[in-house]
Design a protein that fits this description.
The protein has eleven helices and ten strands. It is α/β, with parallel strands linked by helices. The chain has a single domain, classed as 2-enoyl-CoA Hydratase, Chain A, domain 1. Helix 1 packs parallel to helix 3 and helix 3 packs antiparallel against helix 10. The structure holds ligand T3D. The site of ligand T3D has 25 residues, from helix 3 and strand 6.
């Protein structure tokens, strides 16, 4: 069967492409496993001096695959086993990580991108904190990342409404590094990657670590807290209603208080 993560190397730059385009590259347990392996391989390879994450097809990543059976019983476990280590791996990666956001980034897919050191998005791309629509809370670092990127008012606004934020607006409010024309996405990313690859990796990684540890709550602690609350949310009836409504392509009716 086809690889769920495509890896390509051009000089010092490794590009990993999420490859489930028919489901907007949403995460299954299998895709998580392949991404983990590909990240470990890139981290261990001294010739890799910059990592690019992107998505195949029209989307970047739609977050958790809401059809995946693994999440049915144990959402807290899914967050602990998959999203938390993924976010931590990227946040402590030995070389800079660029999210090249080619299309919609929703739920954990949005926060996967925001956890990277740079986000370059195509003008047609967008970001959606989709969690509230299925009665969950942001994970994959969203509760820590968002207020730091855009401030409390915008963080709450985005996370509570789950509204779609176009890439241009995301750049305007400082949530991402750059929004570029679709046709320029690859070139812009490649030239940033080449620049970063030529800089001293160790100093860049330490810069990231210092900037992150200067923040009041530790990233790992925030990720643990997210997993716990996500577990509690997923056991409430509103979550089943939210997922059911999405899969049946109808509007959800929430009742929990
Ligand atoms: O274990 C846990 O649950 C805990 C972890 C939680 C982390 C999370 O990420 S929770 C958030 C999960 N993600 C979402 O709720 C987003 C769901 N997707 C959407 O709202 C929409 O697909 C988008 C706004 C992202 C894009 O809309 P649009 O109209 O451009 O595309 P579409 O038609 O909705 O999607 C295209 C196909 O991808 C479609 O399949 P089909 O009808 O062509 O066979 C759609 O069902 C599928 N798809 C999109 N997102 C997901 C998905 N399938 C499964 N899971 C998805 N998340």
């Amino acid at each position: 069967s086809e690889a769920l993560i495509l890896a390509a190397t051009e000089g010092p730059v490794r590009t990993l492409t999420l490859n489930r385009p028919a489901a907007l590259n949403s995460f299954t347990a299998a895709m998580h496993a392949e991404l983990r392996a590909a990240l470990a391989e890139a981290a261990a390879d001294d010739s890799v001096r910059c990592l690019v994450l992107t998505g195949a097809g029209r989307g970047f990543c739609a977050g958790q695959d809401l059809n995946d059976s693994e999440m049915a019983g144990d959402v807290e476990g899914v967050v602990e086993r998959h999203y938390k280590p993924l976010a931590l791996t990227i946040r402590s990666f030995p070389v800079p990580v660029i999210a090249m956001v080619n299309g919609v980034a929703a739920g954990a897919g949005a926060n996967l991108a925001l956890g990277c050191d740079f986000v370059i998005a195509a003008r047609s791309a967008s970001f959606i904190q989709a969690f509230s629509k299925i009665a969950l809370v942001p994970d994959c670092g969203g509760t820590w990342l968002l207020p730091r990127l855009v401030g409390r008012a915008r963080a709450l606004g985005l996370a509570m409404t789950g509204d779609k934020l176009p890439a241009e607006e995301a750049e305007r409010i400082g949530m991402i590094w750059r929004c570029v024309d679709d046709a320029a996405l690859l070139d812009s990313t490649q030239s940033l990657a080449a620049k970063l690859a030529a800089l001293p990796s160790k100093a860049l990684a330490e810069t990231r670590r210092l900037i992150d540890s200067a923040a009041p709550m530790d990233f790992a602690l925030a990720l643990g807290q997210e997993a716990k609350v996500q577990g509690a949310m997923s056991r409430a009836p509103d979550f089943a209603e939210g997922v059911g409504a999405f899969l049946q392509k109808r509007a959800a009716v929430f009742k929990d208080r």
